[in-house]
């Protein structure tokens, strides 16, 4: 089924062609027509399954027939759990919206930065992407009014509720008009999401996209037995010897992320770290460079994993293992996305062997292991 069969305008079809979208993913096939028809939607699909475009495209299409609104009132509200996802969703709206004949103003707002520029930018916004806390701050300062919302999107609802945003989300929903379209997207349908669904959605189109093993069958997994002191040389060897480009390296702490990135740079490898202790401006610019290919190696902590959404990321390296098998699968799931193959490499010290066996058992997949003792690190 091509995108042309989904009822999107020629302008949006041109935007899809320019972005090299060849055919819709399963969630897009079902969600786009339902949203175009102004139905409520419950979409259950893993990160990387194409869900952002599945609501961005029809929302932009529907807005073409109605963008007139009072100043500091918005047509569409998208609630997200993190600033990184807010920026990411904003970029998708701006990318597809740039081809439309009628201008759609999109704004992403989140905490951790000054609120004043966001207040000033609220003029004539059509689509507002926001984290709950910062949105309520803007409401309290009368910088934005929510009583004209036509479409509400809760993206990554499971994570939003897990992070303790339920009270803030409830307060926001009470500020919205009763008559509106509601779109709820989540990776899982847990008890909290189910409660929100029952309150929020009215006769929804329910779309559940099953993704077996988080698409790990698309990922070539390798493990290297390595002594702790040889991790740095092994990482440099793999990058240089194999000429790896666009590699996401995971560490367990901000300190280790900085340390690994610094040592890579000292050895002539283009690398930067990204973690919660970096400024918002630094994180945004570092992520932009990595996504565009200007930066080859990004060293990150689990905290920012969800903000790193790249369809064609070829390599993930676990410099340090995460605590849980679930986090391991989530990490390696940054590659092997949207039907594209990828490679995930894990460094396993003697102390890690038992933990890695548990990860493999929970994952239901054995990982090919290589002994790094046979690798000559002298020139790395």
Question: How would you describe the overall organization of this protein?
Answer:
The protein is α/β, with parallel strands linked by helices and 380 residues long. It has 2 domains: 3-209, Rossmann fold (3-Layer(aba) Sandwich); 213-374, 3-Layer(aba) Sandwich (Rossmann fold), CATH 3.40.50. 38% of the residues lie in helices and 17% in strands. The protein contains 14 helices and 14 strands. A 7-stranded parallel beta sheet has the order 3-4-2-5-6-1-7, sandwiched between helices. A 7-stranded parallel beta sheet has the order 10-11-9-12-13-8-14. Helix 2 packs parallel to helix 3, helix 6 packs across helix 8 and helix 13 crosses helix 14 (353-363). The radius of gyration is 22 Å and the shape is elongated.
CATH fold field value of the largest domain: Rossmann fold
Low-confidence parts, pLDDT < 50 over ≥5 residues?
A: none
Tell me the overall shape.
Answer: elongated
Structural class: alpha/beta
Kindly report the spatial arrangement of strands forming the biggest sheet: 3-4-2-5-6-1-7
Average pLDDT taken over every residue: 87
Percent strand equals 15-25%
Helix-strand pattern: HHEHEHEHEHEHHEHEEHEHEHEEHEHE
Number of helices: 14
Name the CATH superfamily classification of the largest domain.
Answer: P-loop containing nucleotide triphosphate hydrolases
């Amino acid at each position: 089924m091509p995108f042309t069969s989904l009822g999107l305008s020629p302008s949006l079809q041109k935007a899809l062609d320019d972005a090299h979208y060849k055919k819709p993913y399963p969630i897009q096939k079902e969600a786009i027509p339902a949203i175009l028809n102004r139905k409520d939607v419950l979409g259950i699909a893993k990160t990387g399954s194409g869900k952002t475009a599945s609501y961005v495209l029809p929302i932009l299409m529907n807005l073409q027939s109605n963008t007139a609104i009072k100043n500091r009132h918005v047509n569409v509200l998208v609630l997200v759990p993190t600033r990184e996802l807010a920026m990411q969703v904003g970029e998708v709206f701006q990318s597809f919206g740039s081809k439309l004949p009628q201008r759609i103003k999109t704004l992403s707002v989140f905490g951790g930065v000054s609120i004043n520029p966001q207040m000033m930018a609220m003029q004539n916004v059509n689509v507002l992407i926001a984290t709950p806390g910062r949105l309520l701050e803007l409401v309290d300062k009368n910088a934005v009014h929510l009583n004209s919302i036509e479409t509400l999107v809760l993206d990554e609802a499971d994570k939003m509720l897990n992070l303790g945003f339920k009270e803030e989300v409830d307060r926001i929903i009470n500020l919205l008009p009763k008559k509106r379209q509601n779109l709820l997207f989540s990776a899982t349908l847990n008890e909290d999401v189910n409660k929100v669904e029952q309150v929020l959605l009215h006769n929804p189109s329910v779309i559940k996209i099953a993704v077996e093993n988080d698409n790990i069958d698309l990922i070539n997994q390798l493990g290297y037995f390595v002594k702790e002191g040889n991790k740095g040389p092994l990482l440099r060897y793999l990058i240089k010897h194999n000429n790896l480009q666009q590699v996401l390296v995971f560490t367990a702490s901000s300190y280790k992320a900085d340390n690994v990135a610094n040592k890579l740079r000292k050895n002539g490898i283009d690398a930067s770290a990204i973690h919660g202790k970096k400024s918002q401006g630094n994180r945004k610019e570092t992520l932009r460079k990595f996504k565009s290919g200007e930066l080859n190696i990004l060293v990150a902590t689990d905290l920012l994993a969800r903000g790193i959404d790249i369809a064609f990321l070829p390599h993930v390296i676990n410099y340090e293992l995460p605590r849980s098998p679930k986090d391991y699968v989530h990490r390696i799931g940054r590659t092997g996305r949207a039907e594209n193959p990828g490679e995930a490499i894990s460094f396993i010290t003697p102390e890690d062997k038992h933990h890695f066996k548990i990860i493999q058992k929970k994952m239901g997949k054995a990982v090919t292991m290589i002994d790094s003792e046979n690798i000559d690190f002298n020139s790395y």
